[in-house]
Amino acid sequence: MLAQFNQAVLFLEKHLNVRSEIKRLDREDIYEIPFEALREGLLNALIHRDYSITGTQINVDIFDDRVEITNPGGLVRGLSQQALGKGVSIRRNELIADLFSRLRKVERAGTGIRRMRESLAKAGLKEPEFEIDGFFRAVFRRSPEFSLKPTQKTTQNATQKTTQKILDAIKRDPRVTREQLAEEIRISADGVKYHLRQMQERGLIRRVGPDKGGHWEVVVSGETK
User: Are 60 and 137 part of one and the same domain?
Assistant: First the structure.
C-alpha cells in the first residue's frame, strides 16, 4: 500500500504542471494543485477504501480541467456528507489507518478534508468536490492558467519556454539524451522528440554523429556553440 501511494504521487508529479520559485537560497517547485491536498486525497482513498468489494480499484485520473481520486465504498456507515471536514472521523480500516499514522503519513483523524480545503483556498483554487454513490470521488479543479487546452498565445509562450530549456540543457551537456531531457523538463519523451525536430528544422540545433554516441550542437547566427 505504501508502494501504491508512492507510485500515485510520482504519477501526479509527472503529469501535472509545475513552476519554480527561488526562495532564499533554494528552488521550490510549485504544482498547479497543491500536493498537500492531493496527498490527503490519496491517503483518504487508501485508508477508507472498502476492500471487501472485489473487482474494483482506486483510480487517479487527470483530465483537462480536473483531477479525480476515486475509491470503492462510498461513505462509512454513520458518517454523512454534511459532516465531512468538520472534525468527525469514522475509520473503516482501523489497522490501515494506524499503520499510515505510524509511518507519519497522516495527522490527527478528521482533519484531512479541512487541510485539503485550506491548501486549495491558499492557492486560489476552488474547494474540492465530493461525489458519493457506491464510490467516493474527490474532485480537484485545475487552474485555468494551466489548462491542457491553452490559447494560441499561451501555446506559443509554452513552446518558447520549452525550447529555451532544451537549449540550456544542450549547452550544459551536448550529449544529453532525450530521456534525460524529458525528466529534466518534465514533458514526455515524445514531446522532447517533437521539440527537437522542430528546433532542427528552424536551424537552432543540429545533430553531429549517430543517435547513439553523437551529440547536439547549438547553432547561433550560422555558428555552432
Answer: yes
